[in-house]
Design a protein that fits this description.
Radius of gyration: 28 Å
Order of helices and strands: HHHHHHHHHHHHHHHHHHHHH
Family: Belongs to the ferroportin (FP) (TC 2.A.100) family. SLC40A subfamily.
Oligomer: single chain
Strand content: under 5%
Largest sheet: none
Shape: globular
Subcellular location: Membrane
GO molecular function: iron ion transmembrane transporter activity
CATH topology of the largest domain: Growth Hormone, Chain: A
Organism: Lepisosteus oculatus
CATH class of the largest domain: Mainly Alpha
Function: May be involved in iron transport and iron homeostasis.
Structural class: mainly alpha
Number of strands: 0
Helix content: over 70%
CATH architecture of the largest domain: Up-down Bundle
């Protein structure tokens, strides 16, 4: 009996020990989870995500609001918005290489480039918001000063400040998303793919929510309050981003180590220039000192005024930047990505304006934009899975095929029932008579809103964000077009555009990572700056297309030309992929 009681007591003690051990194990696990979460929240990745989200949110709010503000200032006329778009596109097209070279020439010591770009961007937006608040508050008085010339001065100041903010934003994007992220991930391809995908997801979400937020403020309050809201956001964002980027720089020692062009083993702009001139590498890279040329060239350069010498140095930097871009092993992938910008098959103001003329309501367009954003997020998820399973180069091939396959629905929509395609309107005989009779397509009213919308388009490399919201504002009081006989064409068009976003964003991430991995560190900035210039150039071409064929009946031709450009871009990538496989390059 006593032995049984002892066994029972021992059993209870054993059970109690097991329960205590399980409790301690759960506590250790909970502490480890909370500790891991705390480490992650204090880590560089999370800080970069938060800083990027704040920056992207501010950018999207500003890009949307500035277009609306310019329309309001000029009496609901699109001239100022068109001028702003051309100035922004032209400045990045011309200065993209210089911006990238500035990023390359400055070491990461104390995060000078990132902090300077951040400060210039936010202060420019803040000053521009103050000017806009003053103009909106005293518009009638300003219009009477100097016979209205003070108004012109205000418009000029607003556009210049907004353009400076966009250039600084370009520099910040190159410094953080094309350079810092590579170092933070320790050059690990898997981690780099994850960070790129996460940053793109954040961008997709802010593209939708940020314009909605500032739009609600402007609608419920006023334009002045909207300017104040953006002003306050930028000041707060400036402080938070500055602190977070400084902390990232401190906790990632590798960021303080950046090889100069002379230290890099890869050929650089300075070394290339020096070899051509038969002189040692030029420190600084953007200016050519006197005596760096030979013979008469040396004497001619020395005879030039200092300002012309500096201008000559800047032109030389741009030239060398484009040459550096051309000689990159991933040149074809960058060109292929740029060709994808020459398209009307996106949710920009042109496509949504066309849909509006075909009887699609603004509320339905907003819903379709939400679905498109979800498709874009799916593309970022698919990219990480495909890269892990098949490697980076093969992921690009699969994404290209998926993108092109979905766009075939858009090609079919051109010839499907309900399509307003009328090639006769492209002929030189199209004039007042044909427009009065409605042409072969009947008495359909002629809509010109897509062309007006294109003038409003902020010409930005990333055209997936604010354009539909801009069109909602512009077309708010415009009657929708006559309902077509069949909605088959418009359904196929948007089905193709939405599903193609999956392959598009997966392909975009593929090219982005290929550029990050393949470009030597000393040229990473200038090459990405030239890539931004190429994106702007090809984006401008698609507006030239629309100007050449502005009517809804022409849209089918624009679709076919867009698919041709996209096919050319993906063909360039296929050529690169074939060469990469022949070289047996790492594909993971």
């Amino acid at each position: 009996m006593s032995s049984r009681s002892e066994l029972a007591r021992c059993g209870r003690v054993t059970v109690e020990f097991e329960i205590e051990e399980a409790r301690e194990a759960r506590d250790r696990k909970a502490r480890s989870i909370s500790g891991s979460a705390l480490i992650y929240l204090r880590g560089p990745k999370f800080l970069i995500y938060v800083s990027g989200a704040l920056s992207m949110w501010g950018d999207r709010m500003w890009h949307f609001a500035i277009s609306v503000f310019l329309i309001e200032l000029y009496g609901h006329n699109l001239l100022l918005t068109a001028v702003f778009g051309l100035v922004v596109a032209g400045s990045v097209l011309l200065l993209g290489a210089l911006i990238g070279d500035w990023v390359d020439r400055n070491p990461r010591n104390k995060a000078v480039v990132a902090h300077a770009s951040l400060f210039i961007q936010n202060i420019s937006v803040t000053m521009c918001s103050i000017v806009l608040m003053l103009v909106f508050s005293n518009k009638q008085w300003i219009e009477r000063v100097w016979d209205g010339w003070l108004t012109v001065v205000c418009y000029t100041v607003v556009i210049i400040l907004a353009d400076v903010a966009n250039l600084a934003s370009t520099a910040l994007t190159i410094a953080i998303q094309r350079d810092w992220i590579v170092v933070i991930t320790g050059y690990n391809r898997g981690h780099l793919a994850g960070m790129n995908a996460t940053m793109r997801r954040i961008d997709q979400v802010t593209n939708i929510l940020a314009p909605l937020a500032v739009g609600q403020v402007m609608t419920l309050a006023s334009n002045v309050v909207g300017c104040g809201f953006i002003l306050g956001w930028n000041l707060v964002s400036l402080i938070v981003e500055f602190i977070f980027l400084s902390r990232v720089y401190r906790i990632v020692p590798a960021l303080s180590l950046k090889p100069t062009a002379e230290e890099s083993q890869d050929p650089s702009l300075e070394e290339k220039t020096a070899k051509k001139q038969g002189a040692p590498p030029v420190p600084g890279g953007s200016e050519l000192p006197e005596g760096s040329c030979e013979g008469s060239r040396e004497r001619g350069a020395a005879a030039l005024p200092l300002c012309l010498q500096r201008l000559r140095g800047l032109i030389g930097t741009c030239r060398d930047g484009w040459r550096a871009y051309y000689r990159q092993p991933v040149f074809l992938t960058g060109m292929g990505l740029a060709f994808l910008y020459t398209t009307v098959l996106g949710f920009d103001c042109i496509t949504t304006g066309y849909a509006y003329t075909q009887g699609i309501s603004g509320s339905l367009l907003s819903l379709l934009m939400g679905v498109s954003a979800i498709a874009g997020l799916m593309g970022t998820v698919i990219f990480t899975k495909l890269r892990r399973l098949y490697g980076l180069v093969t992921t690009g091939v699969i994404s290209s095929c998926l993108h092109l396959g979905c766009l075939m629905l858009c090609v079919v929509s051109v010839f499907a029932p309900g399509s307003p395609l009328d090639l006769s309107l492209l002929g030189p005989s199209t004039g007042a008579n044909s427009s009065a009779t409605g042409g072969p397509s009947g008495p359909r009213p002629k809509h010109t809103y897509p062309l007006q919308g294109s003038s409003n388009q902020p010409l930005l490399p990333d055209r997936s964000s604010i354009h539909w919201t801009n069109n909602t504002v512009l077309l708010e009081n415009v009657p929708s077009g006559t309902a077509p006989e069949s909605y088959t064409s418009i359904i196929l068009l948007f089905l193709g555009v939405i599903t193609a976003r999956i392959g598009l964003w997966s392909f975009d991430l593929t090219v982005t990572q290929l550029l990050q991995e393949s470009i030597c560190e000393s040229e990473r900035g200038v090459v990405n700056g030239v890539q931004s210039s190429m994106n702007y150039l090809m984006d401008l071409l698609h507006f030239v297309m629309v100007i050449s064929a502005p009517q809804p009946q022409h849209f089918g031709v624009l679709v076919l030309v867009s698919v041709l450009f996209i096919t050319t871009g993906h063909t360039m990538y296929f050529v690169y992929a074939r060469k990469a496989r022949r070289r047996h390059a790492p594909d993971t």
